[in-house]
């Protein structure tokens, strides 16, 4: 099976579920190598998430859901199920989809144990993970449609990180919107920010856009503000890892700078993401945990050192864009605008 249960075969997919085992396209190796890896339980799935073999908020959640389902099949005792859930939830801190997905499968497994006994837990956990996968697939299609409606007439789109089929089921979130916009208007072109330090834009977004046949120019992250200022961009569209209750949004580090530049130039800054990324329990962006990753990611690339030995490093993987810089948040349940607090709660 490719992509979500019941979903049509697609050109690009990040993960496959055969009913028992999860296989992932190892995104750390793209674009030079397309290698699929097979996972069997909580620990190897958590490791794959932590090292970004699978990434992007929705797909992190889906991988974790299947990881827990596989663990429940191996040992459905309540203690083992809780331990596997904790292992998976702890893999990365920022994308709320991870905890959301793990909690759903955990609740399904524990509910089945309480009602019917341990033997019922594996099927219940698998069914919940598959339901989540299907929901995210349908959500992505709706986000693409609503986002393309919203951005009608905008031709030159700047995006950051990777938010396509590698990051979420179906066509993805922000990149799904862009792909739909391009399907409606062949004149659409994309400025893809390379996304230091792990180059999700250069390695993954450019790869996806080439496969989709959508014209794309790769730019270094530092070029974005200047290009926006000089009128080279009609709209900025990005994904999200966590949306706080007031509409503040955490996304890949560098996003905030694009939002500031978009506001200064008076062009739309649009966030696209499923409601599984919405965290109403976190009042604002200051409460979002920002993952700090290893210094090696900044100090070198592809085995080559790019900085002097001993230099100190800060490596926050995400930043928070305040709600007041956001034109609209596109979810599968509708397009949300200010006042975000009120309108997100109403979703
Ligand atoms: O560290 P990553 O590559 O998982 O970061 C991904 C992003 O920041 C994406 O923009 C976000 O998860 C949305 S993916 C549809």
Automatic annotation (TrEMBL):
Reaction catalysis annotation: 5-(methylsulfanyl)-alpha-D-ribose 1-phosphate = 5-(methylsulfanyl)-D-ribulose 1-phosphate
GO molecular function list: S-methyl-5-thioribose-1-phosphate isomerase activity
Residues that span the membrane, as ranges: none
EC number, UniProt record: 5.3.1.23
Annotated keywords: Amino-acid biosynthesis, Isomerase, Methionine biosynthesis
Pathway recorded for this protein: Amino-acid biosynthesis; L-methionine biosynthesis via salvage pathway; L-methionine from S-methyl-5-thio-alpha-D-ribose 1-phosphate: step 1/6
Annotated binding of substrate, by residue: 55-57, 92, 200, 251-252
InterPro entries linked: IF-2B-related, IF-M1Pi, IF_2B-like_C, Initiation_fac_2B_a/b/d, M1Pi_N, NagB/RpiA_transferase-like
Positions bearing the site annotation: Transition state stabilizer: 161
Residues of the active site: 241 (proton donor)
Function: Catalyzes the interconversion of methylthioribose-1-phosphate (MTR-1-P) into methylthioribulose-1-phosphate (MTRu-1-P).
Family: Belongs to the EIF-2B alpha/beta/delta subunits family. MtnA subfamily.
Protein's name in the database: Methylthioribose-1-phosphate isomerase
Gene this protein is translated from: mtnA
């Amino acid at each position: 099976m490719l992509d979500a249960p019941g979903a049509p075969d697609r050109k690009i997919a990040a993960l496959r579920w055969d009913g028992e085992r999860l296989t992932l396209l190892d995104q750390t190796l793209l674009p030079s190598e397309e290698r699929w890896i097979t996972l069997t339980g909580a620990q190897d799935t958590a490791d794959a998430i932590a090292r970004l073999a699978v990434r992007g908020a929705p797909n992190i959640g889906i991988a974790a859901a299947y990881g827990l389902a596989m663990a429940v099949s191996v040992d459905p005792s309540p203690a083992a199920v809780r331990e596997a859930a904790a292992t998976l939830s702890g893999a990365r801190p920022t994308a709320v989809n991870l905890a959301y997905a793990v909690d759903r499968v955990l609740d399904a497994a524990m509910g089945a144990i309480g009602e019917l006994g341990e033997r019922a837990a594996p099927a219940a956990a698998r069914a919940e993970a598959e339901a989540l996968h299907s929901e995210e697939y349908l959500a992505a299609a709706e986000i693409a449609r609503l986002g393309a409606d919203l951005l009608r007439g905008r031709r030159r789109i700047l995006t950051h990180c990777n938010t396509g089929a590698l990051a979420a089921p179906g066509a993805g979130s922000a990149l799904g919107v862009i792909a739909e916009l391009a399907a409606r208007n062949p004149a659409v072109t994309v400025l893809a920010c390379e996304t230091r330090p792990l180059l999700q834009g250069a390695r993954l977004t450019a790869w996806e856009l080439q496969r989709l046949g959508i014209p794309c120019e790769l730019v270094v992250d530092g070029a974005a503000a200047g290009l926006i200022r000089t009128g080279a961009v009609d709209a900025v569209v990005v994904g999200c890892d966590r949306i706080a209750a007031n509409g503040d949004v955490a996304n890949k580090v560098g996003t905030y700078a694009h939002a500031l530049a978009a506001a200064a130039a008076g062009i739309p800054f649009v966030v696209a993401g499923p409601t599984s990324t919405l965290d109403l329990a976190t009042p604002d962006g200051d409460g979002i945990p920002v993952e700090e990753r290893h210094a090696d990611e900044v100090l070198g690339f592809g085995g080559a050192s790019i900085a002097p030995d001993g230099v100190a490093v800060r490596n926050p993987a995400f930043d928070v864009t305040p709600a007041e810089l956001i034109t609209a948040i596109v979810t599968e349940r509708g397009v949300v605008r200010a006042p975000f607090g009120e309108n997100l709660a109403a979703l």
